[in-house]
Amino acid sequence: MPSLPPAIAEIRLAVRTALAALPEGSTVIVALSGGADSLALAAATAFEAPRRGLRTASVTVDHGLQDDSAEVAARAARTAAELGLDPLVVRVDVAGEGGPEAAARDARYRVLREAAADVRAAAVLLGHTLDDQAETVLLGLARGSGATSLQGMAPVREDDDGVRWVRPLLGVRRETTRVFCAASALDPWDDPHNLDDRYARVRVRERVLPVLEAELGPGIAEALVRTAEQLREDAEAFDEMIQETIEDIVEHAEAGISVSAAALAANPAALRNRIIRLVVDSEFGVSLTRTQTVEVARLVTDWSGQGPIDLPGCSAVRHGGRIVFTASGR
Fold first, then answer.
1. 6-216: CATH topology
2. Which of 60, 164, 242, 261 could disulfide-link 123, Cβ–Cβ 3.0 to 4.6 Å?
3. Which fold has domain 254-327?
4. Where are the domains of the chain?
5. What EC number(s) are associated with this protein in UniProt (predicted)?
6. What pLDDT digit, counting tens, does each position of 56-107 carry?
7. What ranges make up the beta strands (E) of 174-308?
8. CB 296 within 8 A of CB 288
9. Checking DSSP bridges between strand 123-125 and strand 86-91, what pairing results, if any?
């Protein structure tokens, strides 16, 4: 028998490993754009899932951002059906803050979340690759977004709605998905937005990473991904420490929540700042910036009678020995 092409073997193994954690008889959804990454993911899932007793479906979101978007979506759905997946195409209107890229992403995840709820899917599979992860980490570094951003995308994440997002290909290079498609006689769609240098991610992909590789040597993308993995491990350890600490130092107030200033002061800055961010996020659903977090921390470390600090969705003020966070307008 002819040997399996290495690209097919690599991607099938990555998918097989990701599916191993899912219960037999459950349904998985593949987010399918028709590009090489998601097409390779769909084909490998169509091969591996039945062998684990899993049902498979695909969701293709037509963002309507290009003249031929409906045709591209329909083509992706036909390919999914030929592979043995149950295809669904959803047309959305892209509008919102942050530009078309952010609005399209929000719309896409909303559709996928709703589809997962409708069929009670055990997981939604996303086709992000090692290269996508490296770009995400580099963008986070350039923006000074802190360790949370530098962790990149998690291989597995369950959101507040109970949807399990799985990225089987985070260890696979983008070029490998194209080789997979060629070896499988699959014709991927090339999104013209992936060459539009108005987008920062495209500039990182087409200009910045190649320069880094040329000047510093090969392996930059892999190094960035290793950094993300190490930071994620550190973050998980920090989170465990915070959960143990927070029970003893936090009290719920009538219109918000308060934290012991002395307990915050006793912790190192990294842990103190994480506690502040976690408290505000969990109570008010707001993510504080580094600047906002440090300003709140000054109520602990540099207290000189300053008044309330206005934050998104809430305010922080020191009352005696406690830092009190109160919802805006209360």
1. Rossmann fold (3.40.50)
2. 164
3. 3.30.465
4. 6-216, 254-327
5. 6.3.4.19
6. 999 999 877 777 889 999 999 999 999 999 999 988 876 655 566 778 888 8
7. 250-253, 256-260
8. yes
9. unpaired
